């Protein structure tokens, strides 16, 4: 591993901290807006979980079809390359799976529930990374950490409750995840607005 000169210099570290603080302070409106939108979407998903689950499943089906079509086109464009038939078969299977989900969305909810569990686990890890960044500008970074912990716990509950929870869990858990992440992001953004970065030394 190559270490850049001055990487352990306290002055450089302080300047890096100030750079992050300046960025969060200057762009707090964007983060606050994103947090507010996530809260609204999350509340709607919790209020109508079946509709949210159905909409998510249909979106996933169309996404698979689109990805399959693009994959087929890409495979034919590079048909001289190794693995042509494997790439073509995988793309075709994606498109067929998407069509099956659109034909019977409820049949795809279990698969989508597994994917949601993976998403929640990833969201938890990302929230931990965000908390590490925003702690330079706010003492309430623990809210983002809490959001990450909740995401991980939701993923575990989601997996343990299969297959019975598949119909409603996608909408409810996705809504809870959006609400908690939105609140954490919104409060962190408001704290960054109230705490201007330290001036240069």
UniProtKB/TrEMBL annotation:
Name the InterPro entries on file: Acid_resist_chaperone_HdeD, DUF308_memb
Instruction: Establish whether keyword Iron is in the entry.
Output: no
One Pfam family from the UniProt entry?
Answer: DUF308
User: Where is the chain membrane-spanning?
Assistant: 30-52, 58-76, 88-106, 112-134, 141-160, 166-190
Q: Which UniProt keywords apply?
A: Membrane, Transmembrane, Transmembrane helix
Q: Could you identify this protein by its name?
A: HdeD family acid-resistance protein
State the taxonomy lineage. Answer: Bacteria, Pseudomonadati, Pseudomonadota, Alphaproteobacteria, Hyphomicrobiales
């Amino acid at each position: 591993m190559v270490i850049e000169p001055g990487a352990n210099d306290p002055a450089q570290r302080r300047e890096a901290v100030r750079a992050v603080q300046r960025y969060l302070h200057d762009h707090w409106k964007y983060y606050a807006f994103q947090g507010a939108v996530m809260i609204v979407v999350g509340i709607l998903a919790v209020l109508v979980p079946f509709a949210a689950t159905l909409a998510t499943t249909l979106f996933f089906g169309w996404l698979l079809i689109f990805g399959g079509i693009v994959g087929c086109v890409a495979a034919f464009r590079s048909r001289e390359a190794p693995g042509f038939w494997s790439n073509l078969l995988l793309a075709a299977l994606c498109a067929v799976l998407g069509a099956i989900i659109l034909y019977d969305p409820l049949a795809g909810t279990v698969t989508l529930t597994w994917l949601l569990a993976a998403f929640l686990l990833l969201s938890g890890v990302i929230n931990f990374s965000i908390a590490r960044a925003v702690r330079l500008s706010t003492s309430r970074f623990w809210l983002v950490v809490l959001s990450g912990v909740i995401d991980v716990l939701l993923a575990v509950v989601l997996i343990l409750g299969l297959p019975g929870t598949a119909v409603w869990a996608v909408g409810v858990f996705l809504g809870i995840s959006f609400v908690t992440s939105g609140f954490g992001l919104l409060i962190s953004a408001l704290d960054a607005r109230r705490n201007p970065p330290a001036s240069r030394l």
